[in-house]
Specification:
Chain lengths: 463, 283
């Protein structure tokens, strides 16, 4: 299957986008409807350190916390749950680990579906364990083969869907972000990242389709989230939050490639760019934001992404005990209750009121939230589709549109920017506007400028 | 329910369906959140960075031009002026009187909350370009360093941004970094520590199942009688975990690295560093 570019918006109006409903819902195994009028909670647990020591211990641990999650769903009366296993290195590197853990979790899902009727879907997010510097690089190394083999194994074990966080372009983004270099960020995420996804994703779709598993989606965790984490909170001084916002818009143009290659959603939870992609494509999305994922990290978008999300995720939590129970139980309760509120709003036909409350609670807290608020995510999506056929151009103009949104809000005194945030944004906008509209020219220029960045090898991207 | 009640219920239903979603104009956002970064920055807007570091910066040429090139992150000028200076002055003098003061000034402004990471990185790039040129000309090892630090990312982990940032801070502060890279096996780290005898070793990891390499490294170092601080950081790494094994000291931010190295060089034990890192190397 090739890449089918989006040149128009699936949603005809930003106001039509709301949580729990997508234009193209996905129905997972065990009857879990995603984007079909419900918000589904998601829970993700990182295995306890040391559990990776052998296969038996590893599988046993996964069984334990999966059963804890399902028991708490029964205890609290949750009708649906997505359990995501974000692979640790050992789980993808040893495809047998992928199969055995997936198999054990699917068996438990069946058990609880049969006993209680709880709709349980298991997601396996295969680790992108490829290394740019490995023999064979990103495309031909032993690590690459193991990664695809783990997709096979998880899918054959019967998981509901598969996802990944591809890391193409990470080496460039890492270099550029610390220097506040928007051109490098655009090249790393918008060009290298898109190119890598266009190579990886058709293969994932093929494997998933073979086993009747849903090819779900990707995320720019390795790029835009790195920028977001480094940008940190309001008082951090590593990366201007305006730059993080531009990186996120670029990531919208990049992560779209998964859907263009055949991914059906729900898109991967840590893709904060997902509202943009939902607006463009109409596929359902998993989301995270501080109010439901503070166990993993604290961002400045407390409630915002819940406004348009179809699956509410805790992002990840290390397995240990809290007063309320194990972290698996506690965070299932948190995402389950957040989903219940949204589902109540849907049943009461008040979803747009709740959507707007969730949006306004964060829209002007930070430039990153501002550009992801659904009317603005829609604006960025429109620009992406306008230049839809050219991954570079759509990424470039997505960033410029995000910059315009921030500057307009600052001028209208709706968002307060620090001098540093504003100066950095103005400089980035100048840089972006001065870049050529010819993708080949931009590529040629970047290949020269970034040739000495550690681990960067154009061959990894087919150049 | 009679006909009139049904009629009202229908009207209410229609009104509820048509109820506009929330109006932005009625919200007082100042009562929801405060952008403290804007307020804090305003307090410092009157400050002139160059005034604040004038005591650090040299006044005589060619050191002044070199130092200000580093300070401004102007790699081309820093390199060009270093080339010229190397024709007349010994490498140590160029570093001590020109390059280092420029970097110290930037680091001070960063520590004081006035400068930002990109400014530090660009200055470090400028300094590195000049130092690399000197080393090419006179040979590596001719520039005196404060000491050695061995750095690595845990086996199975390729997330090296944190390590690379910490390395920049260390190099800029005059430390020799033995960078073992990412996805580094336990034994390779131990061998490097034995070989290079650093003042400290660092390890970073993103995942719960890769950070488990750290206690193994610590045990092997202790078995060999090596008791240097093992500074650990990264996404999944937290203080509770690091405090479960000997030598381990948590690090939360890249800029802490030089302060940890200074402390280790002074002979402060890992136990003391673990107990007092908030004072010795605040995050």
């Amino acid at each position: 299957m090739g890449i089918k570019r989006f040149t128009s918006m699936a949603y005809k109006s930003a106001d039509d986008i709301v949580f729990g409903k997508a234009l193209y819902p996905v129905y997972e195994r065990f009857g879990v409807p995603i984007g079909a009028g419900f918000v589904v909670p998601e829970i993700k647990v990182a295995p306890r350190p040391g559990s990776e020591k052998d296969l038996e211990t590893f599988v046993k641990h996964h069984k334990e916390f999966t059963e804890e999650i399902l028991k708490i769903c029964a205890t609290l009366g949750f009708p649906y749950i997505m359990i995501e296993q974000e692979h640790v290195f050992q789980q993808t590197y040893n495809p047998k680990y992928a199969y055995e853990t997936a198999h054990a979790q699917v068996e438990l899902a069946e058990k609880y579906y049969e006993e209680y009727g709880i709709g349980v879907t298991i997601r396996h997010t295969i680790g992108d364990i490829r290394k740019a510097e490995a023999e064979g690089g990103l495309r031909e190394s032993d690590l690459t083969k193991r990664m695809f083999e783990s997709f096979e194994q998880a899918a054959s074990a019967g998981v509901g869907d598969v996802a990944i966080e591809t890391l193409g372009g990470k080496e460039i983004v890492d270099y550029a972000v610390a220097r506040g270099d928007i051109k490098g960020i655009l090249f790393g995420i918008g060009v290298c990242g898109s190119e890598d996804m266009a190579w990886v994703w058709p293969q994932i779709v093929k494997i998933a389709t073979k086993y009747g598993t849903i090819p779900a989606g990707d995320t720019n965790c390795s790029g835009a989230n790195t920028v977001m984490f480094l940008a940190g909170g309001l008082m951090d001084r590593e990366v201007a939050h305006t730059i993080a916002a531009l990186a996120r818009a670029i990531a919208g143009a990049r992560s779209l490639v998964a859907v263009e290659a055949g991914a059906k959603g729900p898109l991967k939870d840590c893709g904060y760019e997902n509202p943009i992609i939902k607006a463009i494509t109409g596929v359902p999305i998993c989301i995270e934001c501080t109010s439901i994922c503070a166990c993993a990290h604290i961002d400045v978008m407390g409630n915002l992404n819940r406004a348009v999300g179809d699956v509410y995720s805790n992002e990840s939590v290390e397995y240990h005990q809290e007063f309320g129970g194990s972290t698996a139980e506690v965070w299932t309760a948190v995402t389950g209750n957040a989903a219940a509120l949204s589902n109540t709003a849907l049943q009461a036909k008040q979803e747009k009121v709740l959507r707007d409350l969730l949006t306004y609670s964060d829209m002007y807290r930070d430039p990153q939230g501002l550009i992801l608020a659904y009317p603005n995510a829609y604006r960025i999506g429109k620009v992406i589709t306008q230049y839809g056929k050219d991954p570079y151009l759509r990424a470039k103009y997505a960033a410029i549109e995000a910059g315009n949104i921030i500057l307009e809000a600052a001028e209208a005194k709706k968002i307060k920017l620090s001098r540093w945030e504003l100066d950095t944004l103005n400089k980035a906008m100048e840089t972006l506007k001065a870049l050529p509209d010819d993708a080949d020219k931009f590529l040629e220029d970047c290949l020269k400028e970034y040739k000495n960045v550690p681990y960067f090898n154009p061959k990894n991207y087919g150049w | 329910m009679d006909g009139r009640e049904i009629g009202w219920a229908m009207v209410e239903g229609i009104l509820a369906g048509m109820r506009p979603s929330v109006k932005e104009e009625v919200i007082d956002f100042d009562k929801i959140f405060v952008r403290y970064n804007v307020i804090e920055e305003e307090k410092k807007l009157g400050l002139k960075p160059e005034e604040l570091v004038k005591d650090i910066m040299p006044k005589d040429e060619p050191w002044k031009t070199i130092a200000y090139a580093v300070f401004k992150g102007d790699a081309a000028t820093a390199l060009e002026e270093t080339k010229k200076a190397l024709e007349k002055y010994p490498p140590k003098e160029i570093v001590d009187k020109g390059l280092a003061p420029g970097m110290q000034a930037v680091s001070k402004l960063y520590d004081d909350g006035i400068y930002y990471l990109p400014q530090v990185m660009l200055s470090a790039d400028a300094m590195s370009a000049a130092v690399q040129y000197i080393e090419q000309k006179v040979g590596a090892g001719k520039i005196e360093k404060k000491g050695k630090v061995v750095m690595h990312v845990a086996e199975g982990d390729i997330h090296d941004l944190g390590k690379n940032l910490a390395k920049v801070f260390l190099v800029a502060d005059g430390w020799e970094v033995i960078d073992l890279g990412r996805d580094v096996p336990v034994d390779e780290v131990v061998k490097a520590v034995e070989k290079y005898k650093p003042v400290m070793v660092t390890g970073t990891a993103l995942m719960t199942t890769t950070m488990t390499a750290f206690p193994k490294i610590a045990k092997k170092l202790l078995d060999k009688g090596i008791k240097i601080p093992f500074i650990c950081g990264g996404g999944a790494v937290n203080e509770d975990f690091v405090n479960t094994f000997p030598l381990g000291v948590i690090a939360k931010k890249a800029h802490q690295a030089p302060k940890f190295a200074e402390a280790a060089k002074k002979g402060i034990s890992w136990e003391e560093l673990r107990a007092k890192w908030h004072e010795i190397a605040p995050a």
